[in-house]
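Forwarding these from the shared drive since the link keeps breaking.
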Amino acid sequence: MTVITRTEIAPRPPVGTLPVAEWGLLSRVARPCPDHGGECPCVARDVEGGCLVFWCDSGEHHFSNR
């Protein structure tokens, strides 16, 4: 089993989203940023939009991926 530990805390998730638990399964999901590449961790769920929200350290912004 692999354990992922975040060393930096991302800013607050966007308004209207629910943050994911750092120890939860969704915190282990990562996607590349469409603008900057790299692996970006999931930081929140957008329940209304039906998608996950990710944090890009390189561009210091949130993005979603459906």
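-- next protein --
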Amino acid sequence: MDLSQLVYTRLESDETLQKMLAKYDGQPAIFNTEFPSDQQEGWEGKTQYPRIEYQFNMQVDMQRASSGMLMLAIYTEKNPMVAEQLEMCVRRSLKDVLMMPSDEAPFCVAWARTDPFMLEGNAILCKDLVFDILEYPDQETTDPDPVMALSKYIKELYPDCIVLGMDRIGEYTNPADTPIFYCRLQNIVLDPTGYLQHTITWFNCQIAVHLLCPDSAMRLKLIAGLNQMLGNAGEVIMLDDSPMTINAMQVNNRADYLREGQLLITGHYGCLKDSYVGKGLRKVTITDH
């Protein structure tokens, strides 16, 4: 399924929305971009409210660290209590759930704001909900790969958790059922003190570790445990069996785990230089004196 189908199916399968929304062709009244006209037979001559319309704006917002926006409108007859209940249901249904579109990066949506208003000349109450779309793309770089090395370390430490890049995931993964780790590369910089060595080039990297989990106590326990284990080990063995030294770590339990990550790790690792082969000697003669 694509991004739109994933959002639709998630909302359409919610039992509360199924009961509260009007029906069109026997399905909950949830529409992408446009409503069917009032005269369409699918309404079966019954009420057209409450109903939901949604659309996407895939313009990247660097300030909000988002890959786009999901804009969702809830329309009800003038009943603030029903509108409030529908909003809470929509937000609960979409909150923190990792969705995996076909041939695209997995993503979550994070609620940003709600703008209520009345339609002019009608007793229709509308609530416009805006969600940020947050993608979690593959972070594999090259060999040796600091991100994959750290992901492998976390998977071995917490085998019951999901680690993106190490585990296969389905179309929906609920972190309330299984916590989800995601390692995101912040930067890689050349170590100015080590790049002149003949055999190894040294690099410093920063990796942010996200833990997607709605349980704040569980988040703190797992992140603090990872921080302590890395501190005790002092290094992570990379996939080529070389070590990445842990130079610094910082836990920020107040960080937005969907956008920033709660653990920032600074690592130091080396890459072997290719052997230099000089020009061979030719036409060598030996003179016997």
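The mean pLDDT is 88. The longest helix spans residues 216-233.

- D.
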